[in-house]
C-alpha cells in the first residue's frame, strides 16, 4: 500500500476533463474562451437529450481554471425556438423541466462570465436561456419572446426570472400575452446588453472576446462570483458577500498583486492566470 501511494501520480482535479462527443451541441475551449454552440437545425429546439448534453458540457467547465468567458451561441437562423413540443406531454414533461432547471443551476455555480450571442429568433426556453446569461449580444433582427401561453403552457424559468429582470408588470405582460420583442425593445428593458447590425455581430463578438482574453482568469471569475452571488441578497448582505470574495478569493491570487504593481508601474499587467 505504501509503495502504491509513493508511486502514484498527482491528479489535477481542476484540469479540463477529456473531450466527449456531442450530437446536438458543440463544445470548444481555446485561448481562454469556451463556446457551447446549439447545433440542432433547423430551429435548435431544446430536447431532453440536447439539454442533457448542455448540462454535461457545463459540468466539464466548472473546474476549468483557464476559462475566462463562456460563449453560448447557435448555428442557423434561430438561436432556439424553445422546447420540443412533444416533451410537454406525460412523464417527459418532468424530465424536460428538470433538465432546463439544471442548466440554470449549472450556470449559477459556474464562476465564468457568460455571454449569449443571439443572431436570430429566441423564443420560449430559447429566450430564457439567452437572457439568463450575464451578457447578451444580439443582432438587430433578433427577436425574443414567450409565446407558450398560446399553446396552453408557460415557461417555468421565465416565470421566475423575468419579474427579477424587467419587473412584475412587464413580466406579466410578456408571459400572459405571449408577446415578442425586437432586439431594440429587449435592450430597452435590460434583457439585452448590446444590439448591433446583423453584419457586425461577429466583429463585435470578436472585440468582446479580445477584452476578456486580455484579462486574468481568476480575477474575472472572482468578480463574477461577487456579482452573481449577491443578486438575490439584501444590499448590505450583498456587500458582505462581495467583501468575502475580495478578501478570501481575490487577494489569494497571484494576479491580484500583479495588477496593482502594474498600475503603480504604469504598465500592462503580465497575468499568470493564477
The poorly predicted ranges are: 1-17
**CATH domain topology of the largest domain:** 2-enoyl-CoA Hydratase, Chain A, domain 1
Range of helix content? 40-55%
Number of strands: 10
Please name the defining characteristics of this protein.
274 residues, alpha/beta, 2-enoyl-CoA Hydratase, Chain A, domain 1, 2 domains, 6-stranded mixed sheet
Task: Walk me through the structure.
With 274 residues, the chain is of the alpha/beta class. The chain folds into two domains: 2-213, 2-enoyl-CoA Hydratase, Chain A, domain 1 (Alpha-Beta Complex); 217-264. The protein is 45% helix and 16% strand. The chain has helices at 2-7, 48-61, 92-109, 125-131, 156-166, 168-177, 183-189, 201-213, 217-228, 235-248, 254-264; strands at residues 25-30, 33-38, 69-74, 78-80, 114-118, 121-123, 135-139, 143-145, 180-182, 194-196. A six-stranded mixed beta sheet has the order 1-2-3-5-7-10, sandwiched between helices. The protein has a four-stranded mixed beta sheet with strand order 4-6-8-9. Helix 2 links the parallel strand 2 (33-38) and strand 3 (69-74). Helix 9 (217-228) packs antiparallel against helix 10. Residues 1-17 have low confidence and may be disordered.
Amino acid at each position: 500500500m505504501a509503495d502504491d501511494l509513493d508511486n502514484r501520480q498527482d491528479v489535477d482535479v481542476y484540469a479540463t476533463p477529456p473531450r466527449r462527443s456531442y450530437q446536438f451541441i458543440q463544445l470548444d475551449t481555446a485561448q481562454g474562451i469556451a463556446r457551447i454552440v446549439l447545433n440542432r437545425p433547423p430551429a435548435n429546439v431544446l430536447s431532453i437529450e440536447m439539454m442533457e448534453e448542455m448540462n454535461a458540457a457545463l459540468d466539464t467547465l466548472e473546474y476549468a481554471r483557464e476559462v475566462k468567458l463562456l460563449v453560448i451561441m447557435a448555428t442557423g437562423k434561430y438561436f432556439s425556438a424553445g422546447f420540443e413540443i412533444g416533451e410537454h406531454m406525460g412523464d417527459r414533461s418532468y424530465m424536460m423541466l428538470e433538465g432546463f432547471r439544471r442548466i440554470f443551476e449549472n450556470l449559477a455555480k459556474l464562476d465564468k462570465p457568460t455571454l449569449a450571442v443571439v443572431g436570430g429568433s429566441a423564443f420560449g426556453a430559447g429566450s430564457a436561456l439567452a437572457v439568463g446569461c450575464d451578457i447578451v449580444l444580439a443582432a438587430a433582427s433578433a427577436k425574443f419572446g414567450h409565446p407558450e401561453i398560446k399553446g396552453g403552457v408557460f415557461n417555468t424559468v421565465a416565470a421566475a426570472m423575468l419579474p427579477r429582470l424587467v419587473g412584475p408588470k412587464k413580466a406579466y405582460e410578456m408571459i400572459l400575452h405571449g408577446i415578442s420583442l425586437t432586439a431594440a425593445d429587449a435592450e430597452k428593458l435590460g434583457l439585452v446588453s448590446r444590439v448591433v447590425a446583423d453584419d457586425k455581430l461577429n466583429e463585435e463578438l470578436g472585440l468582446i472576446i479580445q477584452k476578456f482574453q486580455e484579462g486574468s482568469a481568476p480575477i474575472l471569475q472572482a468578480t463574477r462570483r461577487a456579482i452573481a452571488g449577491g443578486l438575490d441578497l439584501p444590499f448590505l448582505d450583498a456587500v458582505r458577500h462581495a467583501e468575502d470574495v475580495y478578501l478570501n478569493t481575490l487577494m489569494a491570487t497571484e494576479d491580484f498583486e500583479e495588477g496593482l504593481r502594474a498600475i503603480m508601474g504604469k504598465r500592462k499587467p503580465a497575468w499568470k492566470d493564477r
